Amino acid sequence: MDSNAHMIKSLFLPLFTLLIIGTGCAVSNKDYNPNKKYSRRELEEDYNLLRNILEKKHPALYWYTPKDSMNFYFDSLHELIADSMTELQFGWQVLAPLTHEIRCGHTSFNMSKHWNKYISDKVTPSFPLFLKVIGDTMVVTGNLNRKDSIIKKGMLINSINGISNHELVQHMFKYLPLDGYADNVNYVRISSNFPYYHRNIFGIYKNYRVGYIDSTGVEKTTLLPMFNPLNDTLLKRKKRPFEPKPPRSLLNKERRESYRSLEIDSNINTAVITLNTFSNGGGRHLRTFIQQSFSRIKKQEINNLVLDLRGNGGGDVNMSVLLTKYLRNTPFKVADTAYAVAKNFCPYSKYIKQGWLSNIGLWFVSKKRQDGNAHFGYWERHWFKPKQKNHFDGKIYVLINGPSFSATTIFCNAVKGQANITLAGEETGGGWYGNSGLLISDITLPNTKLRVRLPFFKIVQFNHTIKNGRGVAPDLFIPPTVDGVIKGIDRKMEIVKGLIKSTQ
C-alpha cells in the first residue's frame, strides 16, 4: 500500500508549512533484536493507548463500523494478545485486523523504523509463488524456486494448503486497510507481493500443497518447498566489480520521471500523461510538469488526452486541484464538509509525529462550530475556477483502478460526468463519498514502536454521491483478464487508444 498518499502540504498556511518541514531522525539498529518478546503488560499498554487515541481523535472511526461493533472488535482483538509476542506477531495478528475493521484506507499499521531498517537488505523465507489475483482467479506471475519444473508462469492456482482461492482472498483481506467496502485496492496489493502477505498472515510452512491446473486443463496438486534464500544460487553470486554511483542530479531526474511522464502519440494525435503520485517528487517540480505539459499539448494542437492515474495513491490535494483546473469546465470545490473531532492531539501529542507542531497548525486552520467539530473552512468554502490559459477541451480518458486513492479520488469525483471525460478501468480504492485524507500523522506506540497512521480530518466530497462505501465507478469498465496477464498486455491503455483511433 504506499506508497503512500499524504495530503499534508494542502493543510497548512504557507508559514506553518515551512515550520513543519524538518529532517527525519536517524535510526540506529545497533541493539535492535527483531525476535524480542514483549510481555503481555507491555503489549496491553500499547494497545490500550492506541484505542484511547483512536476513540478520541480519529474522525471516521464509526463512519462504516458502528460504535457497538467497533467496541466488539477492540475487545475481541485485545483477547488475542498473548503472554509474549514479537513486534511482527503483535503487528500482524492484532493491529492489522484492528485497523481493517475501521474501514478507513488512511488508517493502517506499519512496522517500527528499526524493523524496516533491519529487514531492508534481507531476503526472507516465504511462500514461493507470485500470483496475480483477479477476483477468485490466481495466475502465476513468478516462481522464487527457480528449479521448480512444475509450476510455470501463466498457470492457474486453485488452492493452497487445502484452502480455496476464495477463502484465501477473503481471509487475507481481513488484514488489509480499505475505504468503506472498496476492496479493489487489495486485489492489487496482494498481487504486488503475494509471498509477503501470505507469510505475514498465514506464517511459514516447510512445504505447501498447491492445487493447480496443468497445460491440458487437468486439476492437480503438488508439494512446493518454501522459498529459502540460503538455497538460492543466485544469491551466492560473486560480487560485481565496483561501479561508481550516478550523479545525484541524474538520480533525482530519474526519480521524478518515475512519478510522472508525458508522451505524444502523433499517430492518433493523443497525449498520454502518467501521474503516479500527487506528492513525492512533486511540489514545485510536479506543478511545473503539469503546467508545461498542458502548454505543450496546446502548442502541438493535440485533440485527445489519456490521463493514467492507475497506481496514483494521492498526495497533495493542491496538485489534484491544479490538474482539475486544466480539465473541468465549471467552478468546483474540494469538499462539502471537512472536519476533525478535536482541535488538537492533546494529551497524546508526544506519541504522534510532529504532534505539537500539528496542534499549532490546527489552531490556525480549523474552527470549532456548533456541531462540536473543528472544521477546515477553507476546503468547505473555497471555489476553484477552471484555467483559461492552456485549458484542455478535447476528448479525455482517465485510467483508474484500485490503487487510485485519496487525492486521486477527489480529482475523479470532480471531473466525473463531464461530457468530454470518460473514466475507464476499474473502481477506485479511494472512497467516492469521502475519505480521511487531510493531515495524516503516525502514532508511535511507546513499547513496541509499531506505528499506526492517524488521519485527523474527515472530508465529504463536493457534490457527493450516496454513502455506500464504494469507490468512484468507471464509466467504461475494463477489468484485467488472465490472457492479458499472461501476455503482459496493458488492456486498459490498448482499449482506450483503440477507441480514440476508431473515431478518427
As a percent range, the share of helical residues equals 25-40%
Low-confidence stretches: 1-25
Distance between the termini: 39 Å
Largest pleated sheet: 6 strands, antiparallel
The count of helical stretches stands at 16
- Number of E-type strands: 20
Q: For the record, what is the CATH homologous superfamily label of the domain at 250-440 and 457-502?
A: 2-enoyl-CoA Hydratase, Chain A, domain 1
CATH class of the domain at 250-440 and 457-502: Alpha Beta
Coarse morphology: globular
C-alpha Rg (nearest Å): 24 Å
Computed structural class: alpha+beta
- By CATH, the topology of the domain at 250-440 and 457-502 is 2-enoyl-CoA Hydratase, Chain A, domain 1
Quick structural summary:
By secondary structure, this protein is of the alpha+beta class.
